[in-house]
Amino acid sequence: MRISEDNKLEKIIIVGDRVLIKPKTARDQTKTGLYLPPGVQEKEKVQEGYIMKVGPGYPIPADFGYDEESWGQEEEEVRYIPLQAREGDLAIYLQRDAIEINYLGEKYFIVPQSAVLMLVREEDL
């Protein structure tokens, strides 16, 4: 089975308050024309990349109560407070909180929502 570019992230499920970010390609030349060795851009404290997948959010604890009627009922599904980030947003995030993974030869970062400093959203996407 060959995984196409469109659905290669389809099977990934991001957990909780985390987002999956594909880093922007680093420029190897500065604005003044100096060429940077590999890895210099990656050591910056703040990085940017595109959000590819978003977790469900922050879980809300279930309120079970103590009334007798709740004994015969099934447990509720877990509810979540959704995240601000959406797929396709450009995220500015703290590198120190990011966890690097390689998936199908591509580099991604799993970043908690609290490490995302700013989002740039194109409404036309």
From TrEMBL:
Keywords: Chaperone. The keyword Nucleotide-binding does not apply. GO terms for molecular function: ATP binding; protein folding chaperone. The keyword Chaperone applies. InterPro entries: Chaperonin_GroES (IPR020818), Chaperonin_GroES_sf (IPR037124), GroES-like_sf (IPR011032). CDD domains: cpn10 (cd00320). It holds the Pfam family Cpn10. Belongs to the GroES chaperonin family. This is Co-chaperone GroES. It comes from Pontibacter oryzae. The lineage of its organism: Bacteria, Pseudomonadati, Bacteroidota, Cytophagia, Cytophagales.
